[in-house]
User: Which sequence fits this backbone?
């Protein structure tokens, strides 16, 4: 026991651990929003959308502009929080209709390469529109401070994220499991041809799913914007993290994305305490192990 | 959607006729040898970079074009070669040629360790695991500041005096890259090369006739890593410095674009692709450097959408043969 306390002096610090758990949960929440959209799109269209991190980034930049542009005051922030993801959803819709629709029947590699090309294009356009400097979004006044939890300071904005988390998770569950649209989406992940044969407009469903998935990434980016430096490299960072999440959880699995996003959030939160230098390597190592032992992820389905 | 074509009509990377191939080699070599006398130093630098990326892309195409395996993390092996060469020359004080000789070996060992796991997977998952290992290499290089210099990279990695001029280094590059091309050509036309193509066409049938599929794929992966390491080593001494960006996943996209531009179905495709890629990069970067990624992305998307039955179509048909399409 002494050895452990010497190595990890924080281990007896209960309050610090509690705060660390909570910040891990909020990071996991942002990751969940991005990866569940990515996972959903894969489940239905069988496309791994590598541009999903770019959608997240665009939403964060839209927040920067909208918060500046809208009138001062608390209301402006909330309106921006609603508008930014809608902007990203429209972007996703345009991309689906003009590009992705043409390649659903193509080789999966070509689809991956195309969405990779989108990363480069969106990244350059963001650079041209917003410039190379880092931006920041100020938190609404009511949530700008910090609260004390077991004597440890904890930013109150994260409390909002933690409060929203179960709402969004339950909301998504209700959409997928208690609406007709959700039923169609789940049916499409199982057998798209049969769904089409039964008279469902599968092409329209693909577009809807892509728009919805983009919107989820947008919500993640908009919510995360006040907690991070909005910068050009964030598309790759988010993509890679979301990628790890969906691979561990299983592509196309809703519960898998939730569990593994929270797991990865906690891993990042504690990895920094335990192995500051190698926390990211740890993440990839876990992903590699999952891919080797269970390529389809913890809760995914094996490749046909 | 995708029409099954009889196996006999599938065009595979077909080496040119022996005579035409020899002629192409001689003409290509003569042009390459004569160029430094007619162009400025700037273009010699461009030529060195074309040679390096042509080798990198040809090594990559050994997997993609011949083996039907698309790696999304090939920059890792390029970077392993570059960093091995730079570290051995700078920190261990090895002579340049020894350090350059060790580069591909280090890259091949990396490819062996990672490839052992990667070749167990197929298609999308193959690409993902290769990307994950690539990012591990990138992160280690980026974070291990005491060894690799982290974000600052390793500077002042120069060749010895007699290779210091761009023209001398150009001829040196030409010799090494030329030897590698001969070796790669020998590999793809050997029984091993044909077994690899058989696996790409139909892994199950290849297994039935007694080909050890996984082992062949692993050998191809290691060979591809080896030659990527050569390219990385040459580039390290040309560039005079190495940076973590060499291993970043955006770098892994370069050989992919080069191969797509040049055509996967030909051994020489990547060379043509490298020429087009670098000239385009030069033209666009000269005009507006920040637009380059935009054009790169647009070119790739245009190639995929506008030329579906062109050179890209070939890769698709052969991959689809083993997988059910959307319309089963």
Assistant:
């Amino acid at each position: 026991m002494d050895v452990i306390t010497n190595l990890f002096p924080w281990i007896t610090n209960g309050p610090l651990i509690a705060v660390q758990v909570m910040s891990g949960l909020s990071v996991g929440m942002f990751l969940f929003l991005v990866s569940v959209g990515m996972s959903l799109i894969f489940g239905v269209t069988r496309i791994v959308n590598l541009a999903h991190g770019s959608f997240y980034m665009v939403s964060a930049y839209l927040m920067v502009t909208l918060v500046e542009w809208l009138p001062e005051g608390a209301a402006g922030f909330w309106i921006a929080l609603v508008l930014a993801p809608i902007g990203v959803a429209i972007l996703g819709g345009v991309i689906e209709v003009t590009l992705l629709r043409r390649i659903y029947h193509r080789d999966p590699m070509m689809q991956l390469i195309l969405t990779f090309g989108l990363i480069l294009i969106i990244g350059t356009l963001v650079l041209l529109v917003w410039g190379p400097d880092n931006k920041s979004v100020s938190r609404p006044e009511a949530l700008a401070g910090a609260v004390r939890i077991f004597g440890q300071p904890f930013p109150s904005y994260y409390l909002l994220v933690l409060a929203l988390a179960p709402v969004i998770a339950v909301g998504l569950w209700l959409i997928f499991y208690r609406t007709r649209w959700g039923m169609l989406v789940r049916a499409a992940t199982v057998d798209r041809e049969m769904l089409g044969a039964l008279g469902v407009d599968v092409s329209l469903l693909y577009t809807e799913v892509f728009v919805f998935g983009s919107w989820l990434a947008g919500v993640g980016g908009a919510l995360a914007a006040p907690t991070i430096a909005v910068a050009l490299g964030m598309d790759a960072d988010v993509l890679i993290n979301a990628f790890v999440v969906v691979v561990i959880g299983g592509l196309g699995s809703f519960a898998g994305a939730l569990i593994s996003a929270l797991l990865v959030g906690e891993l990042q939160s504690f990895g920094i305490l335990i192995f500051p230098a190698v926390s990211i390597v740890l993440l990839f190592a876990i992903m590699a192990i999952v891919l080797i032992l269970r390529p389809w992820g913890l809760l995914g389905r094996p490749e046909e | 959607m995708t029409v099954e074509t009889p196996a006999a009509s599938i065009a595979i990377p077909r080496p040119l006729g022996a005579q035409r191939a020899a002629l192409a080699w001689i003409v290509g070599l003569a042009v390459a040898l004569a160029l430094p006398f007619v162009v400025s130093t700037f273009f010699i630098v461009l030529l060195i970079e074309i040679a390096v990326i042509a080798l990198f892309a040809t090594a990559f195409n050994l997997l993609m074009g011949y083996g039907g395996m698309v790696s999304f993390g090939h920059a890792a092996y390029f970077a392993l070669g570059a960093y091995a060469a730079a570290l051995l020359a700078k920190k261990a004080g090895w002579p340049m040629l020894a350090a350059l000789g060790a580069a591909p070996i280090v890259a091949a060992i990396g490819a062996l360790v990672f490839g052992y796991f990667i070749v167990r997977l197929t298609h999308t998952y193959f690409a993902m695991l290769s990307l994950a290992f690539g990012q591990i290499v990138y992160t280690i290089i980026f974070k291990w500041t005491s060894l690799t210099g982290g974000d600052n990279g390793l500077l002042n990695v120069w060749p010895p005096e007699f290779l210091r001029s761009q023209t001398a280094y150009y001829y040196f590059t030409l010799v090494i890259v030329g030897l590698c091309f001969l070796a790669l050509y020998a590999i793809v036309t050997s029984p091993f090369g044909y077994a690899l193509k058989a696996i790409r066409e139909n892994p199950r049938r290849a297994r039935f006739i007694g080909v050890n599929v996984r082992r062949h794929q692993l050998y191809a992966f290691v060979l591809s890593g080896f030659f990527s390491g050569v390219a990385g080593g040459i580039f390290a001494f040309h560039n005079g410095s190495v940076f973590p960006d060499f291993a970043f996943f955006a770098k892994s996209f370069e050989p992919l674009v080069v191969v797509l531009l040049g055509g996967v179905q030909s051994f020489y495709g990547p060379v043509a692709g490298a020429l087009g890629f670098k000239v385009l990069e030069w033209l666009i970067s000269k005009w507006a450097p920040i637009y380059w990624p935009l054009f790169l992305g647009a070119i790739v998307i245009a190639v995929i959408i506008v030329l579906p039955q062109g050179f890209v179509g070939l890769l698709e048909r052969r991959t689809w043969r083993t997988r059910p399409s959307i319309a089963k």
